[in-house]
Amino acid sequence: MARPDELTFAPLGGVGEIGMNLSIYGLGNRHQRSFLAVDLGVSFGDEEHLPGIDLIMPDVRFLEKERNNLVGLVLTHAHEDHFGAIIDLWPKLGCKIYATQFSAALFEAKCAAERNPPKIPVTVIPSGGRVDIGPFNVEFIPVAHSIPESHALAIKTDLGTVLHTGDWKIDPTPIIGQPTDERRLRELGDEGVLALVGDSTNAVRDGRSPSETEVAATIKKLVKAAKGRVAVTTFASNVARVRAVADAANAADREVVVVGRAMERVVQVARECGYLDGSHKFRSADYYGHFPADKVLALCTGSQGEPRAALARIANDDHPQVTLNKGDTVIFSSRTIPGNEKAVGSIINNLVMQGVEIITDREHLVHVSGHPRRDELRDMISWVRPQLLIPVHGEALHLAEHAKLARAAGVPKVLTCRNGDLVKLGPGEPGIIGEVPAGRLYKDGTILEDAKSRAVVERRRMGFAGCAFVAIAMTEQGELVDDPEVDLVGMPENNAAGELLDDIVFDVVVSTIEGLPKPRRRDPDALGESVRRAVRAALNEQWGKKPICVVHVLTV
């Protein structure tokens, strides 16, 4: 094997965006490198811009090509934006996966819920443990976050140590799991850290994130004061919040009913891993109607307005077991992710119209972020004292603010990059030395498509301007056999003057055919293209939009 002479970093997702995280570290020379992947997550589709697309994933063609040199995939934690793409993309990579117990158990439960999941082996590493993966020694350093067993990764090599923070915050009282391990991070700083690759999500927010313990106290008060039924919605993976809700229900003499598959799955895994020891057994949704209104609390999925999740169905009054009425209370123990405001607002409006009281983090401390604010970022820098800092996990503004803060904190070198940039970390002067292929894959039903796929592009256009279908039957001599068939989908029936668009398009098709010379009429491809252009032009003139136009020419 070639003698290692460079340590490199390349983000393939999660930089310039929040979600879809995938980072790779390379060790070796320009002809032969070993690669270590960190996280493999998803983003969620936006119906307005990507109709029908469920999930967005990083394009892994570079790692596919380097499959024989990919020594492993390490998971920092089990949020969907960090591990949600594994089931779909692992078959392209085939590498070993390393994770701690909770992440491995949640991944196993996720696989069990799939119809035909690939058999994906996961090696479980204890929290705080170390493992050699090819030429990389990886240490799992506990950090506080909004899911159990989140870890920063100390990636040690012959050329230096990189601290990959993953998602983290400083919370001395996190309810579940260990607080961020300040002592170990300070030790790491004493040993020397070449680069810190760090979470930038809250780099625009001053101060410090409040503690989960403060949220738990607020929820306890609110549940105790509530008169009727109570429903709480939160991210299913936030086991500390689930625990806080369970304790609040217990203090108010209420039974907890779990509503939603994702919540059921996380609760089961959390119990298996011991994170809900001592809390009362939760009930299934079937029991909801058996309890008096002041003796039940529904713990629901759907905090982001997901249309098929429990809360949306409850708000639409079409959930088979759970209903809410005037005088009941819904607590949104969550933050609305940008892009989901409309969906969440629709659910809130439906609940308000039913007389339900809504409580959000605008009025009460019912949610805190799992990411570090500016003072916490300064603390991390002072503990670790890196030679280089690279902001990741954020949009352009977050990355820029994190970089500015790091420079002000005295970090010798700060470097911002984009997905696909190949960064040399050492030895010598760090910098961007090239590019690797990067992009997006769209999950469309059960099929993975790339960003330029016909289906994705055409569906977006159809959503904007509909589709015109024209069927023409011609004789071999170039004469019409019968009237053309015209079908306009997703368009107005009439133009501004009240004339039927179908009739206008029909006339355009006939006049276009009749106006063509015989040789073009006998050529199905030439005829179809002429009609397509004419129909699009006519609709643009009448309507101001150019739809997709599909022309079928049949020769008989």
TrEMBL record:
GO terms assigned for molecular function: hydrolase activity
Record-annotated Metallo-beta-lactamase domain positions: 21-219
Top-level taxon: Bacteria
Assigned EC number: 3.1.-.-
Alphabetized UniProt keyword annotations: Cytoplasm, Exonuclease, Hydrolase, Metal-binding, Nuclease, RNA-binding, Zinc
EC category: hydrolase
InterPro entries recorded: Metallo-B-lactamas (IPR001279), RibonucZ/Hydroxyglut_hydro (IPR036866), RMMBL (IPR011108), RNase_J (IPR004613), RNase_J_2 (IPR042173), RNase_J_b_CASP (IPR055132), RNase_J_C (IPR041636)
Cross-referenced Pfam families: Lactamase_B, RMMBL, RNase_J_b_CASP, RNase_J_C
Name of the protein this chain belongs to: Ribonuclease J
